[in-house]
């Protein structure tokens, strides 16, 4: 939405800071399949779930204003995330829902999206950008965002500046840490045929030597 152009987050506008902090979060999760959904008047998948974070980084970098009509379709954005995560077999499914506005577009309202996430066991963490007085002026529905987090077992955060948003991502990273189960493969080589071959060769050598010695002896 146009509000993401606001330059109250250093060093540049909210969109830039949102992308950079998300990029750092992705770097901290190298073993996770991560996707990217963007929403304005509608929602669309910018990047499906992937382990190829180089591609994800490029698609994140390509996210910009004007890719969709102005608006804030929070419910549609959340529902799109749920649809992407629905088929995932991972035991831990998480959505980080970053917004600075109130739902004003889309056919799905935020609480319906939250219910879809809850049914599928998807936790939603929703940082909201902006200061409290500015939120009131912009009609940010903090109550709905808190309810989304509550229903899904996630958390609501208020990001007042760049440092706060960085700290929020770090907190989510700590909350969603899970052990990595590595599978170790060991290759066993059957040395039986090789040893039998060596034994046969030695026996043959012994036979040849014995014959030679027997031939030379008077």
UniProtKB/TrEMBL annotation:
Entry keyword annotation includes Transmembrane: yes
Keyword tags: Cell membrane, Membrane, Transmembrane, Transmembrane helix
InterPro entries the record matches: UPF0353/GerABKA_families, VWF_A, vWFA_dom_sf
PROSITE patterns, sorted: VWFA
Pfam families with a match to the protein in the record: VWA_2
Chain segments annotated as transmembrane: 194-215
Domain VWFA: 1-172
Keyword Lipoprotein: no
Protein name: VWA domain-containing protein
Native organism: Eiseniibacteriota bacterium
């Amino acid at each position: 939405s146009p509000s993401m152009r606001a330059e109250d987050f250093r060093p540049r506008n909210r969109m830039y800071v949102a992308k950079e902090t998300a990029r750092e979060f992705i770097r901290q999760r190298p073993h996770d399949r991560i996707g990217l959904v963007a929403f304005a008047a509608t929602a669309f998948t910018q990047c499906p779930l992937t382990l190829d974070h180089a591609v994800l980084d490029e698609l994140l970098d390509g996210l910009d204003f004007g890719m969709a009509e102005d608006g804030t379709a929070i419910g549609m954005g959340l529902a799109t995330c749920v649809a992407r995560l629905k088929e995932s077999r991972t035991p831990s499914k998480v959505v980080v829902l970053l917004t600075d506005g109130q739902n004003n577009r889309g056919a799905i309202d935020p609480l319906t999206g939250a219910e879809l996430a809850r049914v599928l066991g998807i936790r939603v963490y929703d940082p909201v950008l902006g200061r409290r007085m500015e939120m009131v002026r912009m009609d940010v529905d903090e109550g709905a965002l808190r309810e989304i987090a509550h229903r899904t077992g996630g958390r609501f955060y208020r990001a007042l500046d760049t440092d706060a948003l960085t700290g929020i991502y770090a907190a989510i990273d700590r909350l969603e840490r899970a052990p990595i189960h590595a599978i170790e493969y060991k290759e066993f080589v059957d040395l039986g045929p090789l040893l039998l071959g060596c034994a046969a060769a030695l026996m043959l050598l012994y036979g040849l030597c014995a014959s030679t010695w027997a031939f030379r002896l008077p």
